[in-house]
UniProtKB/TrEMBL annotation:
Domain of life: Bacteria
Residue ranges of domain Leucine-binding protein in the record: 58-401
Annotated protein name in UniProt: ABC transporter substrate-binding protein
Family assignment from sequence similarity: Belongs to the leucine-binding protein family.
Organism listed in the record: Brevibacillus formosus
Length: 411
């Protein structure tokens, strides 16, 4: 459902008065209404030393319900944790920075509706999100009109930052980086010589598959077929039979874990013993549940997020986060945390540049865009002119006996 930009005063007032409750990492329900709903925050009072602070709102947007809820809910949990750590510092500056979480259900149309609602709220000064590429692209067109800056933790589609929109930023790698490095890794490290490439016809999955196909052809890996399938199907046996007849060493599927799990399961049941590969859309324990632990063996995927538990500092952060929030660290918890860190750093710089007064959205945009050598907990950030992060990297994982195993950086 698509809301008009000009909302009623009553609706806007209601949106301003409600904030996110808790940080929950649950998957929610897929039957939620398509109308974006304001949510409640459990944050404390707004009293500073003088008894009054001025409210600022940072939104976190992604799929909080439905089959892709892992992405939005884990990013939200990390973002909220980062905001809580900085809340008192902002109160000392005279501002109560609150979080508003919104569910776009990974739907481009819903992304527009959420964006229009956020734009109508004058206290919203930035957006951490959106989590998926399709919703990010449509929402960005709305934010651009009002100079409302966004910092995505996870939208990897190359087109997102190629459309010339000033408000768009992301801390993760692009699909042209992820796809090309995946193909290079498959050839050089997995010794793949033949592959069948498929995708889910969506912005993320197809974009990733196209980059893999392009790199395979450049490097001499034989692409035996390239096909799109419809996401959400329960039976992929027809395309699987077509693939197995060509006997590829690898099947690369650009898409999300919900479809990948079914494809893996059905292909294994038909006798495919080769390597499956995909992107960060595979990074969910649900893929193993859907495919079955044994079937998921030899499923390899790239990710824009490294192994955050590889260092003692990272292990301590995981322990502290889980103890403080009651949530397990998920796929985009760390990048939700660092995306909010980038946003809050820009907001603080904008406040200072504005003489301690509430900055405009354009001032916050300018400060965020100037981010250089920001030392995040998990990724450093310098935005180039397009809004891409100069420090973004690609990593490789595999599933082994039902568990995710880190394989290293893809180079």
């Amino acid at each position: 459902m698509k809301k008009q930009k000009s909302m009623s005063i009553l609706a806007a007032t209601f949106a301003l008065s409600t904030l996110l409750a808790g940080c929950g990492g649950g998957s929610g329900t897929g039957g939620q209404s398509a109308t974006p709903q304001p949510s409640n925050n459990s944050g404390g009072s707004t009293g500073g030393a003088s008894g009054a602070t001025e409210k600022l709102v940072v939104a976190v947007v992604g799929p909080m319900s439905g089959q892709y809820s892992d992405y939005g809910s884990t990013a939200k949990a990390g973002a909220e944790y980062a905001l809580k750590e900085k809340a008192e510092a902002f109160k000392a500056l005279g501002f109560d920075v609150q979080l508003s979480a919104q569910d776009d259900q990974a739907d481009p149309k819903q992304g527009v509706a959420v964006a229009q609602m956020l734009i109508s709220n004058p206290d919203v000064v930035g957006v951490v999100g959106h989590a998926t590429t399709g919703a990010s692209i449509t929402a960005a067109a709305q934010y651009e009109q009002e100079k409302l800056v966004m910092v995505s933790p996870s939208a990897t589609g190359s087109d997102l930052t190629e459309q010339g929109k000033q408000i768009v930023h992301r801390i993760c790698a692009r699909d042209d980086q992820q796809g090309s490095k995946a193909a290079i890794f498959a050839k050089n490290q997995l010794n793949v010589k033949t592959a069948f490439v498929m995708h889910d016809k969506a912005a993320y999955g197809q974009g990733l598959a196209e980059e893999v196909k392009k790199q395979f052809e450049k490097d001499g890996v034989q692409v035996l077929g390239y096909e799109g399938v419809t996401a959400g199907e329960k039976d992929y046996s027809a395309i699987i039979t077509q693939i197995l007849a060509k006997n590829p060493e690898m099947i690369y599927f650009g898409g999300y874990y919900s479809d990948a799990g079914i494809i893996v399961k059905q292909a294994r049941e038909k006798g495919f013993k080769g390597v499956f590969m995909g992107g960060d859309g595979y990074d969910s324990a649900d893929l193993v549940k859907i495919a079955g632990a044994e079937n998921a063996n030899n499923v390899v995927f790239t990710s824009t997020v490294g192994d955050i538990g590889a260092t003692e500092d990272g292990k301590k952060w995981i322990t502290d986060f889980e103890s403080a929030t009651g949530n397990k660290v998920g796929i985009f918890t760390s990048f939700g945390y660092d995306s909010m860190g980038v946003m809050l750093n820009g907001l603080e710089e904008a406040i200072k540049a504005n003489g301690g007064k509430k900055p405009t959205r354009e001032q916050v945009l300018e400060a965020v865009h100037k981010t250089k050598d920001y030392k995040g907990k998990f990724v450093n950030v310098t935005f180039n002119e397009k809004g891409d992060n100069d420090f973004a990297s690609v990593y490789v994982y595999k599933y082994e006996d039902g568990k995710k195993v880190f394989m290293g950086e893809a180079k």
